[in-house]
Amino acid sequence: MTTAPTLEDIEVQLLLEAVHRYYGYDFRNYAASSLKRRVRNFMQNEGLHTVSALQERILHDRACLDRLLLGLTVNTTSMFRDPSFYTAFREQAVPLLRTYPFIRIWHAGCSTGQEVYSMAILLQEEGIYHRCRIYATDTNEQVLQTARSGIFPLDRMQEYTQLYLKAGGKRSFSEYYTADHQNAIFRSSLKEHLVFAQHNLVTDRSFNEFNVILCRNVLIYFNHTLQQQVHQLFYNSLCKFGILGLGKQESIRFTPHETDYEEIAKGQKLYRRRN
Amino acid sequence: MGTSLGGLSALRTVLGSLPGHFPAPIAIVQHRHKESDHTLPCFLQQFVSLPIREVEDKDEIQPGWIYLAPADYHLLVEAGHFSLSTDDPVSYARPSIDVLFESAAEVYGSQVVGVVMTGANQDGSRGLSKLKANGGVAIVQDPRTADSPVMPEAAIASVSVNWILPLDQIAPCLIRLCNP
Ligand SMILES: C[S@@+](CC[C@H](N)C(=O)[O-])C[C@H]1O[C@@H](n2cnc3c(N)ncnc32)[C@H](O)[C@@H]1O
Prior knowledge:
The complex is a heterodimer.
Chain A: H1 7-23, H2 32-46, H3 51-60, H4 62-72, H5 83-97, E1 103-108, H6 114-125, E2 132-138, H7 141-149, E3 151-153, H8 157-166, E4 177-179, E5 183-186, E6 194-198, E7 210-215, H9 224-237, E8 238-246, E9 261-265, E10 270-273
Parallel strand pairs in A: 1-2, 1-7, 2-6, 7-8
Antiparallel strand pairs in A: 3-5, 4-5, 8-10, 9-10
Helix pairs in contact in A: 1-3, 3-4
Chain B: E1 2-3, H1 7-16, E2 26-30, H2 39-45, E3 52-54, E4 66-68, E5 74-77, E6 82-85, H3 97-108, E7 113-116, H4 125-133, E8 137-141, H5 150-158, E9 163-165, H6 167-178
Parallel strand pairs in B: 1-2, 2-4, 3-4, 7-8, 8-9
Antiparallel strand pairs in B: 5-6
The complex binds S-adenosylmethionine.
S-adenosylmethionine (SAM) binds near residues 73, 115, 138 and 140 of chain A.
């Protein structure tokens, strides 16, 4: 038994419905618990006391909608996040990829791009980057601008260096960027095969067939219904024997395609489409 | 259940005293380093007869299971299952006890029992007061029996708790509450 919806629950539903109908952004199937927290934080920042008041402002003030879009998506990311995932990718996925003349990779929900540059570094070290094209997408145009720039805060480089080494990095991490006083500017050779583009996993369709799809820590923000829909999209966008990589605490259990994949690295959330 | 500094041995004591037929699900936030691996559940499992699992997104909430928040993710309760998020730290913590308690209170109201144990920060106080406001039961470890009394003291100062219990009395109390 769970408690009945509160007034606030109803207001949040109405807000999401209004945002969808009027602006076309669809948050209706995002995971309710964390979405509600973000709506509340946003209300506080705007100095509003009810969700209904927020709805009124959103509908009459486009700038407020843009702030809300940023407020509702979580952009936390890091280079070589979960280093064991990258080690597994190097050991299990790269040998499979070597057999392809050309490799298309889709990073869905790439945020500010740290993961994308990590993958570009790994592929360069494995000597196959020149045969790859990485399509990195996110729904949020603002984070994509950072991603395109390849410029990240210098003060995180120490942490990234540690993670890079744990991920089996083969060189000195500082070879990959030049530093000015606050920024690390990543080498432009890493960008050669990157394409950054806006894409919404809820409302947009597949745009290619891929050998690898990586989507980490994005699906956790969706509810079960939406997760199933996006897994369908991924399955349809992967070629035979294509590789799917998910976040550390995500899995393909309970998705419609659970049995269509096999795990290629135990516990690392790296899967391969069976056929 | 929320613990921070000193939590490992506190959890060992409390969970280790629960019988194998304990009927309620237990969700735990234990603060730890963001790159900790999966050794915590294995470590605890040695002393505990109930099955322990580090939560994966959308795991179903099942009676008699112990669920641990994964390192670097907030653990949230929804109707019948868990959700994870990497939203900003709350009370400097990810996972945050406040986030777990508040979300559990919203979904399960008076059916929730919140337990705050040893720790050196303020996390859990806000969540515990929300939990009480929604009709739940608040238990706090007696600070004198805590390795680190700050967290229980903060909870006691800001919430009218139902019980302040020495560490070894927490499991018996949970057993009474969950076996009507
Ligand atoms: C927590 S970040 C994950 C970044 C990176 N993949 C990682 O794991 O480090 C989640 C990203 O998902 C994006 N996102 C949220 N909803 C989306 C949607 N409907 N379509 C595409 N991207 C979305 C957000 O903008 C955000 O950048």
